[in-house]
Amino acid sequence: MEFVLYEVKGQTGIITISREKALNALNSAVLEELDKTLDSVDLDTVRCLILTGAGQKSFVAGADIGEMSTLTKAEGEAFGKKGNDVFRKLETFPIPVIAAINGFALGGGCEISMSCDIRICSDNAVFGQPEVGLGITPGFGGTQRLARLVGPGMAKQMIYTARNIKADEALRIGLVNAVYPQEELMAAAEKMAAGIAKNAPIAVRNCKKAINDGLEAGMDEAIVIEEKLFGDCFETEDQKYGMAFFLDKNKEKVKEPFQNK
Ligand code: CAA
């Protein structure tokens, strides 16, 4: 891969978008490599992903403006689909994905972070949907996910004005969960990922699916989605062990890692 790095640390997979000369902007090649990288994740061993950008300045500075500048209407729509398909794969990826946003998260950069389950950022991070200033709409899910995350009023303000916001404001409006000094961001992301990875993997995956699928349904349907995924955890080795461990009165015993079975 030329633009996407992937490494596994313990039970955490770290994906780094690495196109530093263009501030990690997303061109077709980056999107294709990201798609292939997701397909290559070994779900038997990896329990959480972290997505970040190479360097100290930018997470992802958006879709590649050079590549987009000459597109026809049909090509523009196809480029939007290309991004949306990968971002949707990320959003529905079986295991949680943490975005560690280490700088600019503009346009497609803000959008890819919103396809992740959890967003944390460095104190130099900048968020925004600058597209209307370029003569286009957000095209990788921004009009949909931003409104769902921060509410339609704030999303419309950000998108119509194309004004960038800093990390503290992103925290205040609920776009990110926490802000860290740049040098502490990856350690914080890895610690969070390890905290997720130690829990029963089938249960964690089912939580992700229940939350995601439930958000797209009415409450009557959503609660049935939860019931099925809750029921699905029973009779697993991890459910039997987790509950037996709790009920065991021998407090000297050390909890074994969950087996993903
Ligand atoms: N596409 C292509 N190249 C980009 C880019 C992008 N989105 N963002 C930055 N670059 C390139 C610059 O062209 C520059 O390349 P050269 O060195 O070859 O000139 C290099 O990265 C460094 O950028 P700057 O010199 O501009 O760095 P800066 O520190 O002065 O500014 C910045 C940083 C404010 C992020 C500025 O680069 C910028 O505004 N970038 C564009 C941000 C943007 O508008 N993103 C949205 C794109 S549209 C989109 O994403 C549509 C969608 O929803 C699908």
Number of domains: 2
The rough form would be described as globular
How can the largest sheet be summarized?
Answer: 6 strands, mixed
- Uncertain regions spanning at least 5 consecutive residues: none
CATH topology of the largest domain: 2-enoyl-CoA Hydratase, Chain A, domain 1
Broad structural category: alpha/beta
Q: Beta-strand percentage? A: 15-25%
Report, as a whole number of angstroms, the end-to-end distance.
32 Å
Bound molecules: acetoacetyl-coenzyme A
Q: How many helical stretches?
A: 11
Fraction in helix: 40-55%
Tally of DSSP β-strands:
10
The secondary-structure element order is EEHEEHHEEHEEHHEHEHHHH
Q: What does this entry look like structurally?
A:
It is globular, with a radius of gyration of 19 Å. 48% of the residues lie in helices and 16% in strands. The strands form two sheets. It has a six-stranded mixed β-sheet with strand order 1-2-3-5-7-10, with helices on both faces. The chain has eleven helices and ten strands. It has helices spanning 28-40, 65-68, 73-91, 108-114, 142-150, 152-161, 167-172, 182-197, 201-215, 219-233, 237-247; strands at 4-9, 12-17, 48-53, 58-60, 97-101, 104-106, 118-122, 126-128, 165-166, 178-180. It is α/β, with parallel strands linked by helices. The longest helix is centred in the first third of the chain and has 19 residues, at 73-91. α9 runs antiparallel to α10 (219-233). It folds into two domains: 4-197, 2-enoyl-CoA Hydratase, Chain A, domain 1; 201-247, Orthogonal Bundle (Lyase 2-enoyl-coa Hydratase, Chain  A, domain 2). Bound molecules: acetoacetyl-coenzyme A (CAA). Acetoacetyl-coenzyme A binds next to α2, β6 and α4.
